[in-house]
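Annex B.
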Amino acid sequence: MSKIPVTIISGFLGSGKTTLLNSIIKKYNDTRFAIIENEFGDINIDAELVVGADKGNVFELSNGCICCSMNDDLYTTLEELLRIRGRFDRLIVETTGIADPLTVIKAFVAAPEVADNFDIDAVICVVDAPIIEELLEEQEEASRQLVMADVIIINKVDCVTPGYLDSVKLVMSRFNPSALLHATSFGEIGSIDMLGINAFTGRQIEQSTLKFANVVPLKGLSKMGGFTATLAKKALMHDIQSHAYSFEGNFDFDRFSLWMESFFYFSSSKVFRVKGILSFANHANRVIFHSVRGAFMLEEGEAWKEDEARESRIVFIGKHIQREEIGAALSMLLVKEDLACSKE
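G3E family GTPase: predicted structure tokens.
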């Protein structure tokens, strides 16, 4: 039996997550959804606001933030879903506004019994456009939600000016260059594709990694002046960033694997996600690398052409990442004749 596609919806309190969820259900009315609703409190009001889904397929987690209570509640709910999997086609998880999506993502990719039955399709972050400036300044969780997203929905754009929206889009595109970016009002998605994104497949990881090429760093925007600079500075306040590297030549597979294991052992709390396209010596194909909080996988990609210059690109996403130290360490993992590196 095929795996169950999972869409995770994050976003701070009041951003419009449930409204977006209802828009997805309405748009894909031929799809049977199972819904996991998480509310930070004893009574889950959001579950009552879900419209169009079979109420028997809506599961409530009301014991607190899903990222804290998930080891028991979420896994129990996923087990129940597997028992009734013939009743639905897809799963949507709406997290509470203060949730760190990283913990939820890891639950679906790190535990074999879950990963064997569920596949994350995409992580969607809903942004409250009128108050994004305050959220970035005051709430680190908002920055974590943005940087981990595969799709960013800038909602409530009817409440902001076109110039303001342009600045938000520009900063968001630098804060998370690999994310798909869309602007909406009232969570109306129209022709925007919300399903079938396949963000965690090797092909999409490769494509998203390439988006980091030639991107002006967020720090560059902070020097531009005006509201764009103000917003960029606030996005940098919690030191949550993406750092991209490119290396000419080939890595040594054994040394690279050993270094990564050691790196994640000591740094998994600071490094949220790593993804890249790698070239290894004596290996004919590209290798797609993907890690979430230390749990990583290597997937075979397309073959290198004989006359093609080999190059590896790798992106680290996290908090307080030591950019120069990581670049220097990775350079040492190249085979001797390939010691060349450029940091993007």
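The radius of gyration is 20 Å. Confidence is low (pLDDT under 50) at residues 40-47, 64-70. Further annotation is deferred to the next reporting cycle.
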